[in-house]
Automatic annotation (TrEMBL), chain A:
WD repeats lie at residues 62-104, 105-146, 199-241, 285-326, 328-369. The keyword Ribonucleoprotein applies. It comes from the Eukaryota. Belongs to the WD repeat DCAF13/WDSOF1 family. The keyword Cell cycle does not apply. Its main location: nucleus. PROSITE patterns: WD_REPEATS_1, WD_REPEATS_2, WD_REPEATS_REGION. GO terms for biological process: maturation of SSU-rRNA from tricistronic rRNA transcript (SSU-rRNA, 5.8S rRNA, LSU-rRNA). Keywords: Nucleus, Repeat, Ribonucleoprotein, WD repeat. This is DDB1- and CUL4-associated factor 13. Residues 361-410 form the Sof1-like protein domain.
TrEMBL record, chain B:
GO terms for cellular component: small-subunit processome. It comes from Salix udensis. GO terms for biological process: rRNA processing. Residues 67-88, 116-127, 145-154, 462-476, 669-682 have a biased composition (Acidic residues). InterPro entries: SSU_processome_Utp14 (IPR006709). It holds the Pfam family Utp14. This is U3 small nucleolar RNA-associated protein 14. It comes from the Eukaryota. Residues 89-99, 106-115, 858-869 have a biased composition (Basic and acidic residues). The lineage of its organism: Eukaryota, Viridiplantae, Streptophyta, Embryophyta, Tracheophyta. It is found in: Nucleus, Nucleolus. Keywords: Nucleus, Phosphoprotein.
Length: 413, 890
């Protein structure tokens, strides 16, 4: 009589090293697992619920300003550094990791309205209502590390006087030009005290200006006559004007799709345009219940963050009609400026309550170093959620958010 | 002012000439006789026309001027002024006012009439001179215009010359005339200037160009001028500023649009990619270790100290110059030196003591001492296996050694030493070496012994079985009786064995017990039959032995005979089967060996006709379909043998009958396909072999339809389906209850019975019936004969369904396809899981993502890249390389 036993050859199953994983054989025959869909659905549901449980987007607030934060700029070359300017003329450099001020540049007489840093992160440009444009040397990273808070370079590298108040400033990507907006649009070089060129089209003042990061010679501005204008530096003339129903507060170019930009409008919506076809918006992003004050694209180009006068920060997909995330706290007042961090993992907001707030871009993301298995787990959960997001239960859980009452009421007609 | 006047005059004269030209020849014919003399005169005398004649001509000419020509002149005037000014004033200015050359000028000897002499001819050999002449001619006639003034001057001049030289004035007069006259003849309507004859009298670009004909660059210039002529436009007045700005803006916009559009393929690729990676381009900033080192700045105390020492100027200088100075710098304090020396001395003394001790120990000659020492050492390291755990440990160690031996085969002549010896030949070695080799082999045997023993115990059954089968295969004829006897023995043993019914588990349940008992009885019965059969066959074998014929021989020979005599139709299959007979025999032996196994697990098959005699056939059949086929052939052969020699068969008639039955049965199924025949019939057939064979010969292949009908003769599928459908329909729309007598009031009286059911009950019933009908009619499968569509809602399944088609999907199929395959690690191999779960955006925390950079994307590569992305990693790398190359190119 022959007895069949499970036989395993030692060659197959002997591990070479103690750390090696035991060999496991798996039969992937679908007939053996008929409940796979139900199982995965359940997992997706659990993942959605876990996401809700772990959703803790708020990392911390950075206080120090004594007036509302009016503008911010990120250091394109240094992840931890962010500049903020306030209405009282104070400019601060923050270390986000430690959430403290590293450096102060307190010279502006009036409100600081615009801040920007050069691509190499060495020079900071600020402008304000005191009709000056100031260039600062940014302290190098090592000084930031060493951490003795000081007015490290209290003297600006250069001060350029203008005739009118400046509303906004933006630096060209990988060039040494920057543009200021005010009564007109001026293009400056680092080394010249006079603008290299200036554009004027219409009589109203320009309130925001943004360079196209992919196409560095292209810039867009919005003016208080409800217009959005495109300029091309090579032909040194304005290119196109688009008049909207209401004023556009800010514009942001998609860093991964140089033809597209999104405009944050007073009418609570954001409008995504293709710069080549300005006849109609490609996408209207609705959800805010008050004017959208600032907008910034994620470096991945797949989503953007908006700050609104309704005291919330929202994150939209680049092609999504509604926001995927809303951030708010009881203490956060009108949001005047928002920025996505350079690694697309954090969001920083500056608001009327003189604070900068640091948020996670993905509310339930696990911070810190992940083990490979953890990583895989997260990926699997994400994939499951993405796959089953259309099914009613998962959809409900993923979409659900607690909103402040006024916003909820304003949102529900 | 003067020049202006002159120009004015010139224009006038030119106009005059113009008008002259068309009329010239006509007039010539008219006045040729009249003025021929005058003309001749002119030719002889020189350029001048008398002033009076000129005035007269002028008077005549205005009459000739026609109105049609006038407007043409108006246009020409402007253009003339504009164009003529340049060559007149700029190029020939100097010559015009510098008349020195003119004085020297001699009329060429071969001077000809202008009419004959053409510009082109001159151009061939010298353009430049001709041009000068041309110009001079022009100047000449300019000069003539103010003759009056000149005449006086000339006279004075003549007088002066006479006074100086004392020569007659005649000599000078001639000379002077030649000087002034650059044209051969004075200009007039009869004697027009050259340019009048050549063209319209203006100096065009062509005229200038002609001079450089044949020089490099001429062609291009001419081409350009032609193009300019063709497209020559009149300059428009500039547009108003707003319009200009607008145009400029639109142009700028178009330009920037075009620039942006070049990004499109790149953006498209990124959007369509299942995953975009942002974790790849880690720009560390430094490319070499040197670069990193040069950027290094000491921060901590230690680093600073180190760097101060390393970067000490003295040290650096010493390094550069000479090593000797390093020694001077390398100062050690006295304390340090002393302490280190002490330390070294201490270590040395310790070593020395240890050495001395070991020497002493080595000197001791007592073997027991050494043995004890060794044991001690072992004890120190291993310890005496006192308790179970230690013993186990030791065993483990031993096991490990053994395993190692098995893995490495160190003692099986694998070492270099052993191999060398083997190579040289063991016999040539001395005794010691051989002993060592033997010892090694022995050790190997010792170490691997356990393994073998284990193997033996596990596979003893196998090997014995194999042996048996081998034996049977080898010589079946001889072993047949033995095997039969053995089989019989085994069967008997199995029958006698009382297999214990399990006390627990499913088998211990009462009904299972009963079933087991029943089965066992059946098996016993079969076993007994088998034994009987074995005995009979044994007997037969003995008989055949007596007849000195081996079993197989008896089987085969008569069979062949029969085939030659009575088989009219021989199918290939049968032939093959006959060839297989030997093997078949072997197999039957095998089967007989295995009977003890089969008899335990035999079951009663209801489909097979239940003749008592058929038991054995079943037994045979159970061994497998192929076996049955072969065996049946064999047995039919035996049966045929029987029919040929009845006397012999009589002895074991019972057995032959038994054997025949399954054979016929099988033949029915496999060859004839006449399943409907009753058992009795088939038996009847079998009783007469020839009859059956004749039956076979008249066999016809049935059609496919027939076969199917026969195959599914028993079951009526349609009927069943209908029944099923009706059931489901009833379940989903249940039939209303039939109205019955209501219990309670009036039940016991006759009133209700008499009245019948109350009307409302009936009505209700009718309503319910109608409703049901309605519902049945409304069902989706009402008109579908072969379909059941359940209308019951499954709540559990509902949550896996969406209400509407989700947005990006265009059809239900696509959506369902998208969530069909599971993606989890349990359902997919590890290699695929990663790719299945990869998120849309892969980024690394803390890595700065730069904006997009332009790179060329061509469509072919794009497709390839996507394919590669889903595919292997290596390919991805390669494609990356290619993309990089493209970037570098662009």
């Amino acid at each position: 009589m022959k007895v069949k036993v499970i036989s395993r050859s030692t060659d197959e199953f002997t591990r070479e090293r103690g750390q090696d994983l035991q060999r496991v054989f798996h039969n992937f025959d679908p007939n053996l697992r008929t409940q796979e869909k139900a199982v995965e659905y359940q997992r997706a549901l659990n993942a959605a619920k876990l996401d809700k449980i772990f959703a803790r987007p708020f990392i911390g607030a950075m206080d120090g300003h004594i007036d509302a934060v009016s503008c911010m700029a990120k250091n394109p070359n240094y992840l931890k550094g962010i500049f903020s300017g306030s209405m009282d003329g104070d400019i601060r450099l923050w270390d986000i990791a430690n959430r403290r001020t590293v450096c102060r540049f307190p010279v502006h007489q009036g409100a600081v309205k615009g801040l920007t840093a050069s691509t190499d992160g060495r020079i900071l440009v600020s402008c304000g209502t005191d009709c000056t444009v100031r260039l600062w040397n940014v302290p190098v990273a090592t000084i930031m590390e060493s951490g003795n808070m000081s007015d490290c370079s209290s003297e600006p590298q250069a001060v350029y006087m203008g005739e009118n108040a400046y509303w906004a400033v933006d630096h060209q990507w990988s060039g040494d030009l920057f543009a200021t907006a005010g009564a007109q649009v001026d293009i400056w070089n680092h080394n010249r005290s006079q603008p290299v060129s200036s554009f004027k089209w219409g009589t109203d003042s320009v309130i925001s200006v943004r360079f196209n990061p992919g196409e560095p010679n292209l810039l867009a501005t919005s003016a208080s006559d409800r217009s959005i204008m495109l300029y091309d530096l090579r032909v040194s003339s304005p290119a196109r004007k688009l008049i909207m129903r209401t004023k556009t507060n800010c514009i942001s170019w998609n860093p991964m799709e140089p033809m597209n930009f999104t405009a944050a409008n007073e009418d609570c919506n954001c409008y995504s345009y293709d710069a080549r076809k300005l006849d109609e918006a490609k996408c209207v992003h609705k959800d805010h219940v008050s004017a959208v004050m600032d907008i910034d694209f994620s470096p991945t180009g797949r989503e953007f963050v908006t700050g609104s006068y309704d005291r919330t920060v929202r994150i939209f997909q680049y092609n999504g009609g509604h926001s995927r995330e809303i951030y708010h706290t009881k203490r956060m007042q009108r949001v005047f400026c928002v920025k996505f961090s350079c690694d697309a993992s954090y969001v920083i907001s500056g608001s009327d309550d003189t604070n900068l707030r640091l948020w996670k871009a993905k509310a339930s993301e696990q911070l810190g170093v992940l083990l490979p298995r953890e990583q895989r787990r997260h990926e699997y959960n994400e994939a499951l959620k993405k796959r089953y997001k259309h099914l009613p239960e998962v959809k409900r859980i993923v979409r659900h958010r607690h909103l402040p009452k006024p916003i909820y009421k304003a949102g529900v007609p | 002012m003067q020049s202006h006047k002159m120009i004015e005059k010139k224009r006038k004269s030119r106009d005059g000439k113009k008008h002259d030209r068309p009329q010239k020849f006509a007039r010539k014919s008219k006045f040729s006789k009249k003025r021929g003399k005058i003309e001749d005169d002119k030719r002889r005398t020189g350029p001048r026309l008398p002033q009076s004649l000129r005035i007269e001509l002028d008077r005549i000419n205005p009459n000739d001027q026609s109105g049609s020509e006038e407007d043409e002149e108006g246009i020409n005037d402007d253009v003339y002024e504009y164009e003529e000014g340049v060559p007149e004033e700029e190029s020939k200015k100097n010559r015009r006012f510098d008349s020195v050359e003119n004085y020297e000028y001699e009329l060429p000897k071969d001077f000809k009439d202008e009419n004959v002499d053409s510009d082109d001819d001159d151009d061939d050999f010298d353009g430049g001179e001709n041009k000068i002449a041309h110009h001079k001619g022009k100047k000449g006639h300019l000069d003539q215009l103010d003759d009056d003034v000149e005449d006086e001057d000339d006279e004075r001049h003549l007088r002066m010359l006479q006074g100086i030289t004392g020569m007659p004035s005649q000599a000078f007069q001639d000379r002077k005339k030649t000087k002034v006259v650059s044209e051969g003849y004075p200009e007039s309507e009869y004697n027009p200037t050259r340019d009048v004859l050549d063209g319209d009298g203006r100096i065009a670009i062509e005229d200038l160009l002609e001079s450089i004909q044949g020089k490099p660059g001429y062609r291009e210039l001419r081409k350009i001028t032609r193009q300019v002529e063709k497209k020559g436009k009149v300059l428009q007045a500039p547009l108003p500023k707003e319009d200009r700005d607008r145009l400029e803006r639109s142009a700028a916009y178009e330009q920037s649009k075009k620039d942006i559009t070049r990004w499109e393929p790149l953006v498209k690729r990124n959007r369509e990619a299942p995953t975009i990676m942002f974790d790849k381009d880690t720009d560390s900033g430094f490319s070499t270790i040197g670069a990193i080192a040069s950027e290094f700045e000491p921060r901590t105390e230690f680093e600073k100290k180190m760097s101060s020492l390393v970067n000490d100027d003295n040290v650096m200088a010493a390094h550069k110059e000479d090593g000797s100075r390093l020694l001077e710098l390398n100062k050690i304090s006295l304390e340090d030196y002393i302490s280190s020396r002490n330390h070294i001395a201490k270590m040395r003394s310790l070593l020395f003591r240890h050495e001395v001790k070991m020497k002493r120990v080595k000197k001791i000659k007592s073997k027991t001492y050494h043995r004890l020492l060794k044991k001690d050492r072992l004890k120190g390291s291993v310890g005496i296996p006192m308790d179970a755990e230690e013993a186990k440990e030791l065993a483990m160690k031993q096991e490990f050694k053994r395993a190692e031996e098995r893995m490495t085969l160190r003692h099986k002549n694998q070492s270099k030493w052993a191999q060398r010896i083997v190579k040289r030949g063991i016999d040539t070695q001395d005794e010691g070496t051989r002993a060592a080799m033997a010892e090694q082999l022995h050790q190997h045997a010792l170490l691997t012994r356990k393994m073998n023993s284990m193997k033996d115990s596990s596979s003893s059954d196998d090997s014995s079985d194999e042996e048996d089968s081998e034996n049977s295969d080898g010589s079946d004829e001889d072993k047949a009786p033995k095997l039969l006897a053995k089989a019989r023995e085994k069967t008997r043993r199995v029958l006698e064995e009382d297999d214990g019914v399990p006390d627990s588990g499913v088998l211990s349940l009462p009904f299972m017990k009963r079933a087991l008992k029943k089965r066992k009885e059946a098996a016993d019965e079969e076993g007994r039959l088998a034994i009987q059969e074995f005995e009979s066959s044994l007997k037969e074998l003995e008989d055949t032995d007596e007849a000195k014929i081996t079993k197989t021989g008896t089987v085969i020979e008569p069979k062949n005979k029969i085939r030659s005599s009575s088989y009219s139709s021989d199918s290939e299959a049968e032939l093959e089967a006959q060839e297989d007979i030997d093997i078949g025999l072997g197999r039957t032996d095998d089967m007989q060996n295995n009977i003890n196994v089969n008899s335990v697990s035999l079951y009663v098959d209801a489909d097979i006709p239940q003749d008592s005699v058929l038991k054995n056939s079943e037994l045979v059949k159970d061994l497998g379909p192929k076996m049955t086929y072969e065996v049946s052939i064999l047995q039919s052969n035996t049966w045929k043998k029987m029919s040929s020699s009845r006397n012999e068969v009589d002895t074991n008639g019972k057995r032959s009958q038994k054997v025949v039955e399954p054979a016929t049965h099988n033949q029915d199924i496999e060859f004839e396909g006449v399943g409907e025949d009753s058992d009795a019939d088939s038996e009847g057939q079998m009783l007469d072999g020839i009859l059956s064979s004749e039956h076979k010969s008249s066999y016809k292949l049935p059609s496919q339809a027939e076969l199917i009908r026969e195959a599914f003769a028993g079951d009526d599928v349609q009927e069943e389906f209908n029944k099923d459908k009706e059931e489901i329909m009833n379940l989903e729309n249940p039939e209303p209850e039939k109205p019955a007598q209501l219990p309670g009031w009036g039940q016991w009286t006759r009133v209700q019975k008499k009245k019948g059911l109350p009307s409302w009950v009936l009505e209700e019933h009718e309503n319910a019936k109608r409703k049901r009908e309605e519902a049945l009619r409304k069902r989706k499968d009402a008109h579908l004969k072969h379909v059941i569509i359940s209308e019951k809602l499954d709540k559990k399944a509902e949550k896996l369904l969406t209400g509407t088609l989700p947005y990006p999907f265009t059809s239900k199929e696509v959506f369902e396809q998208s969530i069909r395959m599971p993606i989890g690690p349990e359902f997919n191999p590890a290699t695929a899981v990663r790719a299945l779960n990869r998120p849309e955006v892969v980024k690394k925390q803390g890595l700065i993502i730069k904006p997009i950079r332009y790179e060329d994307v061509d469509s072919h590569e794009r497709g390839g890249e996507e394919r590669r992305k889903s595919g292997q990693k290596q390919k991805i790398k390669r494609s990356k390389g290619r993309v990089k190359a493209v970037v570098a190119k662009s």
